């Protein structure tokens, strides 16, 4: 675990997805932080991510636009909070760029997400933590299919980066 | 302005309070970041701040308890985002400790606050910026007396730190 990541975890408020992945941390980091890569894996098919902006600094904008199979588009805006290359990436959609509070009245899960990458053997222990404000928010996000969605997205990330390596 | 503070400001979404203060930046910084000092100035009298916890790191807890003249207590929890000693302090109550989204359903203004301290003559240009999610939130905060409240609190800060200097 990176030194300055005092990762507290709450059973009632957090969702965790963890898997050992056959890619080096740097490849996973690149997939997460490169707009032209993230659009290729971020959203479980048949949904797509059709646009992305990544301003990789604390307070910077993390923006994606998802498209449903029916062609409806859903913009998502967040704010990067902590950036430790190849180790730890934290962002939230409770804030927008420059840390401005987000208008969360439209609904949808409000989370702070923390991706930690730890070298393990020839690969990486990939851990995604989603923090919520309340147990109800956490349960609703679990019921929406958090684990399945993040798992499918990770499968797509792995396939993409394996092709890039090949 | 500190180098990595790309301070965008929105006329519709931000409130700004600015004054040149006859104290060095370090004294103002100390007043903002020391629990035993902040309790002495943070809340315009006759309200009081009766407790404070300050975990001065990005993701750390900023906690205060205010008490009304009638004796009712109001805890406030926030999260530090950016810490540049003697220059810039950013926190939000849209998040709690470890960047966890806050439960904002109780109401009250949700803000990201940015204090910037710039040496000017023998003193300091003190600037407090409050960012809001929506124009309605911003207007409501202005109507609650943002400028008067922050002005009175600053008067108390100055009086306290002048006594400390003397």
By CATH reckoning, the class of chain A would read Alpha Beta
Count the DSSP helices of chain A.
4
Q: What string gives the helices and strands of chain A in order?
A: EHHEEEEEEHH
Class per helix and strand makeup of chain A: alpha+beta
Please state how the strands of the largest beta sheet of chain A are arranged side by side.
1-7-6-5-4-3-2
The parts of chain A where pLDDT drops under 50 for at least 5 residues are 1-6
Indicate the CATH topology of chain A: Alpha-D-Glucose-1,6-Bisphosphate, Chain A, domain 4
| Oligomer description | homodimer
Average pLDDT confidence of chain A is 93
- Portion in strands of chain A: 25-35%
Outline of chain A = globular
Q: Main beta sheet of chain A, described?
A: 7 strands, antiparallel
Radius of gyration of chain A: 15 Å
């Amino acid at each position: 675990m990176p030194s300055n990541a005092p990762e507290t975890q709450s059973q009632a408020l957090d969702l965790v997805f963890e898997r050992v992945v056959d890619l080096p941390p740097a490849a996973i980091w690149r997939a997460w932080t490169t707009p032209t890569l993230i659009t290729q894996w971020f959203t479980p098919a048949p949904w797509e991510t059709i646009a992305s902006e990544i301003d990789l600094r604390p307070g910077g904008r993390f923006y994606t636009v998802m498209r449903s199979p029916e062609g409806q588009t859903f913009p998502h805006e967040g704010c990067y909070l902590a950036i430790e290359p190849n180790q730890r990436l934290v962002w939230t959609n409770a804030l927008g760029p420059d840390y401005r509070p987000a208008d969360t009245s439209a609904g949808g899960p409000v989370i702070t997400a923390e991706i930690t990458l730890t070298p393990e053997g020839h690969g990486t222990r990939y851990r995604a933590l989603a923090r919520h404000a309340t147990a109800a928010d956490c349960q609703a996000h679990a019921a929406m299919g958090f684990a399945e969605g993040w798992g499918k997205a990770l499968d797509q990330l792995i396939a993409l980066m394996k092709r890039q390596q090949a």
